Amino acid sequence: MIAIVQVTIRNNDLEQGLRALKKKMQREGIFKEIKRRKHFEKPSEIRARKKDEAVRRLRKLERKRKERDGY
């Protein structure tokens, strides 16, 4: 997956542009992906990671649903 991240630099403020770029990369999960690809991951580790991510997503969805419904 290739994610194209663009940031516009206003008033030659490079520091602000860099901060915005880092924030966008963090949100897209690029840093996490780089860290994950740095070393080989066994198939069993991949399955466990994906399962954990799915559980985390479901819990987040359930938490948002309860918050919205007022439980």
Task: Supply the number of structural domains.
Answer: 2
- Rg is 18 Å
- Unreliable residue stretches: none
| Cα shape | flat
Ends apart, CA distance between termini = 38 Å
Helix content: over 70%
Q: Give the percentage of residues in beta strands.
A: under 5%
Characterization of this structure:
With 71 residues, the protein is mainly alpha-helical. The protein folds into two domains: 39 residues, no CATH class; 30 residues. Helices cover 70% and strands 0% of the residues. The protein has three helices and no strands. The longest helix has 27 residues. The model has no long low-confidence stretch (mean pLDDT 91).
Topology:
Blueprint: H1 14-28, H2 30-37, H3 43-69
Briefly summarize what is shown:
With 71 residues, this protein is mostly helical. The protein is built from 3 helices and no strands. The protein folds into 2 domains: 1-39, no CATH class; 42-71.
Features:
71 residues, mainly alpha, 2 domains, 3 helices, 0% strand
